[in-house]
Write a structure and sequence with these properties.
The complex is a heterodimer of chains A (about 450) and B (about 450).
Chain A (H helix, E strand, L loop, with lengths): L1 H28 L10 H37 L3 H4 L2 H15 L10 H39 L6 H39 L4 H6 L3 E2 L14 E2 L2 H32 L2 H16 L2 H23 L8 H25 L3 H9 L4 H30 L2 H6 L17 H9 L8 H31 L5
Antiparallel strand pairs in A: 1-2
Helix pairs in contact in A: 1-2, 1-5, 2-5, 2-6, 4-5, 6-16, 8-11, 8-13, 9-11, 10-11, 11-13, 12-13, 13-16, 15-16
Chain B lengths: L1 H16 L12 H43 L4 E10 L2 H4 L7 H6 L2 H12 L6 H8 L6 H11 L7 E7 L2 H7 L16 H12 L3 E5 L2 H4 L12 H32 L4 H13 L4 H15 L7 H25 L3 H9 L4 H30 L2 H5 L20 H9 L5 H31 L4
Antiparallel strand pairs in B: 1-2, 1-3
The chains are: A mainly alpha (about 450), B mainly alpha (about 450).
């Protein structure tokens, strides 16, 4: 594969320049390293960095721009009747990329498209060859320039350390960049969506049926995009999950922290943590194939009609998933309450449970509320359990025995399969994603602020 | 909170009233002992609540494990049917050339069908025959071809061969289809069950270890579907994730912990990382879809894109864990290094980083385990395709283990339920392995300063 090959080539060049730089420094020192400003290793690293970093940067930029540029070149040559219609254009682009990848022999498309496909293949070859040439040029230029700069009193170590520091700043900036990336990518498509659908209708509409026509010849309704039923469904499932997770999580944290013998703790705590490590797709399978049928059958014997995709099944299993989250966070908070408060309470003759209820719990309350808020944000964003165990139809109901759908389920169903980035149907997924991001972000920020504001300092 | 506080206030008031005629509390009075009894009962109740909560959580864990193992253990064996089969030269090699190209093209499916008809000669009608052919999997003909290509001397002989059975037959043999239920409500009718019983009484049905499950890619036929393709896809995805998130995460952690000036920008980065750790994973999937597929036009369904997406998701986990590990290295080490004339970068790279490495690796392994179990963001970037081939590189279309589980869980065939559970067991085994390694590292290299 060409990328692996290029990376290996760059790595090899770096190693070579390291050796060259080091050798040159040793030669300049005349056998006494004290003649040099830095250690020979630093001169080697200096040349290696100057050889490798520009080459790597070029590689990344090239790969990021190659696709858009070649596509734009190909599109500019297509006839107007194809490019003017977005639907046709995306079909044509699919065909073109298939032909370019040599998988398009069986396709029945216009000759212009075939030609464009061949052209794209040629462009790719040109681009790949050019990349190899330019990459080698850049790497070798970096190598020779830095090699020539090496003199005995060059401050190689300081230079290297400065570069390393900038690299580390760059790495930290990626954290910010990914947030910016999330916000922009969601916002961009969501604004696209809001130019087709009224934001007020989206935020406050009571009906959700996004089945719009993706191709012009399909028969479908206009679709309605009101997210209230989705949000109501999400909140219903979250509420059920919290009703399971908060009492069980809190009481297990209390028992673990205050009552359990070290032996019991050593066994039970890791066992609880296993629950947190189980992938959500496994919980989804469990909810859909074990819990939901069980609830349906139990409901049938009791004379209740329980939907096989009931909110209850998804909520219960999600609650189980969140138990360790609540329990470990509240365990942390409660163990931070200082021993002196406990001792004071015991000294007044309070029993253990009285101490916990009247002293420890109130002192830890802000932290516990924060933990619960974080758990709520987690439940809202949880995807696989609800995709597998909750329904698809957007019912506005508070009955946990009925099927409801959630924001995440809709995002998945809208984006798995046919995507069309100019239909409101596909774009609505990004609008939902934006709402989801903002809600969870808000909850997290609020939870952290809340904890900070009400945390009493015990020292 | 309030009842005890008010109780104390009441007592205080009572004491004030009676201050001139202070009488000692009679601890043995009936009132007191009743109150103490009540309080102790409350204490016991409270303790029971706690124990019950833990037991409930553990019961959920046991139930989860039980339901998966009981559904899935049978997927590791597969039913084989013994049948007498003639390697008919007229079908395999009509010209007698033994040319591998000819042998490879022969109609082995027809041979199996002939053998089945010979075994049950009273089957005549067309629809009955089709059911009869369902006894043997459509994958068995590939086995025959392999055998013949391997040993052309088989041609012309008649052998008793064990062939892999179809999925319905397999389910019947494993007891998931009961002969006692109504004929209309089961997937096999009475004839097919009759054939099964005939074969069984002739000792021509056997369960064997199902190696294909570990070596095959996905398939529409449950008995041919395996997890190897998904496992390889997961491997490539994780490699890309690790190569990106580990160096970037560690570098960011070092910078934030050791070099960053305490200013607004650093603070923003810190808050940002904490918030990123709590962003739902599906949002990262949307980012991946928009950035990598729509803007950069990277290949859909490729492990490279999956790895890039998961790297962004794992980054906060690794940064937070690495920072904790770096913070745990005592300042005296740094001061000693600086005092001996090392530069700050040398101090970190020669002393702090090696000492913090066990903690960093533990955090990285835990982050990788999360990435291995992650499904939702990969659905967004198209890793849900039905892919039969084993991916050969990180640029090929692939799927990963959790997505394979999701796909199989959606399949209607009964036999896929056990495949799904078995794939879950394999995934959990990998996760336990990784977490075990993390615990081992922590135990082995943890240092108390």
């Amino acid at each position: 594969m060409s990328l692996t090959f290029l990376l290996l080539a760059v790595a090899l060049l770096c190693a070579l320049s390291f050796v060259f730089g080091r050798q040159r420094a040793i030669a300049l020192s005349g056998g006494r390293f004290s003649n040099l400003h830095s250690l020979p290793v630093h001169y080697g690293t200096y040349t290696a960095l100057w050889c490798g970093l520009p080459a790597l940067a070029l590689l990344i930029v090239w790969y990021a721009l190659q696709g858009p540029v070649t596509n734009a070149l190909v599109i500019s040559d297509l006839p107007v009747e194809i490019t003017s219609d977005p639907g046709q254009l995306s079909l044509a682009m699919n065909a073109i990329s298939l032909i370019a990848a040599d998988h398009g022999q069986h396709l029945d498309v216009a000759p212009e498209v075939v030609e464009a496909g061949n052209r794209l293949a040629i462009l790719h070859t040109i681009s790949n060859t050019a990349l190899i040439v330019v990459l080698l040029c850049v790497a070798l230029t970096g190598l020779s320039l830095s090699y020539r700069k090496i003199v005995a009193d060059m401050r190689a170590r300081n230079n290297v350390e400065r570069i390393v520091r900038y690299l580390m700043i760059g790495c930290s900036a990626i954290a910010i960049l990914s947030t910016v990336g999330i916000v922009f990518s969601l916002l961009f498509e969501a604004l696209h969506f809001f130019s087709k659908v009224n934001p007020l209708e989206f935020l406050f509409g009571l009906e959700w049926s996004p089945q719009t026509a993706i191709r012009a010849d399909q028969v479908a309704s206009d679709g309605s995009f009101g997210m209230i039923p989705l949000f109501a469904g999400t909140l219903l499932i979250t509420l059920i999950a919290m009703l399971v997770a908060v009492p069980i999580g809190l009481f297990s944290a209390i028992y673990m922290g205050e009552y359990a013998s070290p032996m019991f703790r050593a066994w039970a705590k890791p066992a609880l943590e296993i629950l947190a490590g189980v992938p959500t797709v496994v919980y989804g399978f469990f909810a859909a194939l074990t819990v939901a049928p069980f609830l349906r059958d139990t409901g049938a014997t009791l004379g209740l009609s329980v939907s096989s995709e009931s909110a209850l099944a998804a909520g219960l299993v999600m609650g189980v998933m969140i138990i360790p989250f609540v329990s470990s966070l509240s365990d942390d908070v409660m163990s931070q309450v200082p021993q002196s408060l406990r001792d004071g309470s015991y000294g007044l003759g309070a029993t253990k449970s009285e101490t916990i209820r009247h002293v420890i719990f109130p002192a830890a309350l802000p932290g516990i509320v924060g933990a619960i808020l974080l758990a709520v944000s987690r439940a809202i964003g949880e995807t696989m359990i609800v995709v597998m165990a909750a329904g698809l139809a957007a019912n506005l109901t508070a009955n946990p025995l009925q099927a409801v759908t959630t924001v995440t389920v809709q995002i998945v169903t809208l984006l798995v399969g046919d995507q069309e980035f100019d239909s409101a149907k596909t774009l609505s997924a990004f609008a939902l994603g934006l709402v989801l991001f903002l809600v969870t972000l808000g909850l997290n920020v609020f939870a952290l602020k809340f904890v900070q504001k009400y945390r009493e300092k015990y020292d | 909170m309030t009842d005890m506080a008010s109780l104390m206030e009441d007592r205080a008031a009572a004491n004030a009233d009676a201050s001139d005629q202070r009488k000692p509390v009679d601890w043995d009075s009936a009132d007191m002992s009743r109150s103490i009894k009540k309080r102790y009962a409350a204490e016991r109740r409270f303790k029971t609540y706690g124990l019950t909560a833990i037991m409930l959580a553990l019961a959920a864990l046991v139930l989860l494990g039980y339901s998966i193992i009981s559904k899935g253990y049978s997927a590791f064996v597969q039913t084989y049917v013994q049948i007498e089969l003639t390697f008919d030269p007229a079908v395999i090699d009509p010209d007698g050339t033994r040319d591998p190209a000819v042998l490879g093209r022969a109609n082995y499916d027809g041979l199996i069908k002939d053998a089945l008809r010979a075994r049950f000669p009273d089957v005549t009608s067309r629809s009955e025959k089709r059911k009869l052919y369902g006894i043997i999997s459509s994958g068995a003909s590939y086995d025959l071809r392999e055998q013949v290509l391997d040993k052309p001397s088989l041609i012309g002989q008649t052998r008793k061969l064990w062939l892999i059975s179809g999925d319905d037959f397999d389910m019947l043999n494993k007891g998931y289809i009961s002969a006692d239920t109504q004929e209309a409500s089961r997937r096999l009718d009475d004839d097919e069950i009759g054939w099964f019983q005939t074969l069984q009484s002739a000792n021509a049905i056997e369960k064997r270890f199902h190696t294909r499950f570990f070596t095959n890619g996905d398939s529409r036929e449950p008995e041919l579907a395996g997890i190897w393709g998904a496992a390889v896809g997961s491997f490539y995805t994780l490699i890309v994730t690790l190569l990106l998130s580990f160096p970037i995460g560690v570098a960011a952690a070092i910078y934030l912990e050791e070099f960053a000036p305490k200013n607004r920008l650093t603070q923003i980065i810190e808050v940002n990382i904490n918030n990123l750790a709590a962003v739902p994973s599906i949002v990262f999937g949307l980012l991946g879809l928009e950035l990598y597929l729509n803007v950069m036009h990277l290949p859909r369904s490729a492990p490279v894109v999956g790895g890039l997406t998961l790297a962004l998701m794992t980054l906060p986990t690794i940064i937070i864990a690495s920072r904790a590990a770096i913070k745990a290295v005592p300042p005296s080490i740094r001061q000693a290094a600086l005092g001996l004339g090392a530069s700050p970068v040398q101090t970190v790279s020669h002393h702090v980083l090696p000492l913090a490495m066990p903690g960093i690796l533990t955090g990285t392994i835990i982050g990788m385990a999360q990435a291995l179990g992650e499904t939702a963001p990969l659905l967004m970037i198209g890793m849900v395709a039905f892919i039969v081939d084993i991916p050969g590189s990180a640029m090929d279309a692939a799927t990963v283990l959790p997505v394979q589980i999701y796909l199989w869980a959606d399949s209607p065939e009964r036999a896929f339920v056990e495949k799904t559970s078995a794939a879950i067991m394999v995934l959990l085994a990998f996760l336990i392995l990784m977490n075990g390694l993390a615990v081992f590292l922590r135990k082995k290299f943890e240092r108390k300063w």
